[in-house]
Amino acid sequence: MKIMIATAAALSFAALAQADEIEVLPGQWIYEVTALMGFVPLPEGGNECVSERGAKRSLSRTAASLGEGCSIASADPIDGGYRFVMRCNGNLTGEVDGEITTTGENATLSASGWVSQEGVEVPVSVQGKAERTSAACL
């Protein structure tokens, strides 16, 4: 499940750039993500300083960096963001369909799907939001 939460956190403050690439505004961001694995809530939140150098991220590279054979199966532009499908085929298998949208200094993420580990399949839901709190990192 950490994979799904990490993906949500990585994507939840993204701004649309070009195909398969997201661009964030540099500065200080706060985020909260709540994932439900079955009926178990797995909340996570925090702060992240995004430098100029780290402002562009490939969705595919982000998914691959999670391990577990994760990849972005599709990333289609929508108004203000992307609709995407992420699949994992490692020790943890599953598929999550989601949307990420941004407006100015806010972003939202909504995704759902399933994960399976050791033959047990459970539904997954991820909701995330992020806000840029400062142009400078603290």
Features:
138 residues; mainly beta; 2 helices
Structural description of this entry:
With 138 residues, the protein is mainly β. The protein has 2 helices and 10 strands; from the N terminus they run H-E-E-E-E-E-H-E-E-E-E-E. Strand 1 and strand 2 form a beta hairpin. The radius of gyration is 14 Å and the shape is globular. The termini are far apart.
Shape: globular
User: From N to C, what is the helix and strand string?
Assistant: HEEEEEHEEEEE
Major sheet attributes: 7 strands, antiparallel
Q: How much of the polypeptide forms β-strand, as a percent range?
A: over 45%
Main β-sheet, spatial strand arrangement: 4-3-10-9-8-7-6
User: Tally the helices: what do you get?
Assistant: 2
Q: What is the SS-derived class?
A: mainly beta
Number of strands: 10
Q: Rounded to an integer, what's the Rg over CA atoms? A: 14 Å
pLDDT < 50 runs, ≥5 residues:
1-18
Q: What does the average pLDDT come to?
A: 82
- Please give the share of residues in helix: 10-25%
**What distance separates the N and C termini?**
29 Å
